[in-house]
Model the fold of this input.
Amino acid sequence: LAEKQALLAAVSGNYLFEKDTAYQQLGNYIHPSQQLEKNLHRTHLSFRTNERGELTMTSIYCGAKAIHHSSVKVIAPDGTYQQTPTAGETYESTVLGEQIEKSDFRLGEDGGVMEFIYRHATEKLKLEFQGDRTYTTQMTPADCQALVAVYDLAHLLDFIHEMQNEREASTVKIRFIEKQLAEEKK
Done:
């Protein structure tokens, strides 16, 4: 645990940490290349992990006409692909005539898309945003590398969180046993 916490301290400066304590209990780490201000008006996949290592992918569509997308397919050059299930919730808005649509997918509920991107990060991946209509674009190398970095960080954070939980559970058990032993001695 100490080794992994030291690793986290060494790498956490490579990410942006966002947390508004007024409404968030957990903050999120994002890759600097995916900072919101750098990605306005761009259709892409965005990745973040919270402090517990829970990884989330957001599909963001920006265009002149709504497509009402609720699923994303990622296709490798060899034709293999992974596709998300239909998103439970999607968010749509219009800003200055531009349609903006977003759908969130958590790791494990993403149809294997994030792991697929991780394994094929050095390849030219095609994205299909699927809804009433389909919109196709290329995934940028920077977005692929952002996923790899955030994916690795999420696994590190998850490991640390699990180890802390195990340590707390062990401490409770030890206290219980010590209390029982003290009572038996009386």
Remarks:
- The mean pLDDT is 93.
- Residues 32 and 38 are 9 Å apart (CA to CA).
- The first strand starts at residue 16 and ends at 18.
